[in-house]
Amino acid sequence: MLNSSALSFDHLPTCDLHAIAPEALQDLVNEILPAEKAQIMAEFFGMLSDPNRLRILSVLSKQELCVHDLAAVVGMSESAVSHQLRVLRTMRLVSYRKSKRKVYYQLLDHHVLELYRSVSEHLDE
């Protein structure tokens, strides 16, 4: 991996319209999203790219539900919903609680709810 503090931009041609000092370019290099974090974020967004998972999250953003009721609301089999919930649990997006013989799922992280709402609002504009 390149050491960003050792990079030099003095040799690069400057843009006539947007001349930027080498120090400013170095500041950008120092602030860019690290490759490792970018990879993790891409995997996270990839996990959210499934329409069924988004529909499940949209329901769970309103209230917690058991698999049976969640399957009825989203129009999927309980098996398919359980599979999607396993993926969402692995990514720590939903949690569950047991009450006697039922398992209830809920959103785990308010950040996911904020992200969901932001994207939804953006698409409505």
UniProtKB/TrEMBL annotation:
Residue span(s) of domain HTH arsR-type: 33-125
Keyword DNA-binding recorded: yes
SUPFAM superfamilies membership: Winged helix' DNA-binding domain
Protein's UniProt keywords contain DNA-binding: yes
Record keywords, A-Z: DNA-binding, Transcription, Transcription regulation
Entry-linked InterPro entries: ArsR-like_HTH, ArsR_HTH, HTH_ArsR_DNA-bd_dom, Metal_resp_trans_reg, WH-like_DNA-bd_sf, WH_DNA-bd_sf
Superkingdom of the organism of origin: Bacteria
Xref: PANTHER family: ARSENICAL RESISTANCE OPERON REPRESSOR ARSR-RELATED (PTHR43132), HTH-TYPE TRANSCRIPTIONAL REPRESSOR CZRA (PTHR43132:SF6)
Entry protein name: Metalloregulator ArsR/SmtB family transcription factor
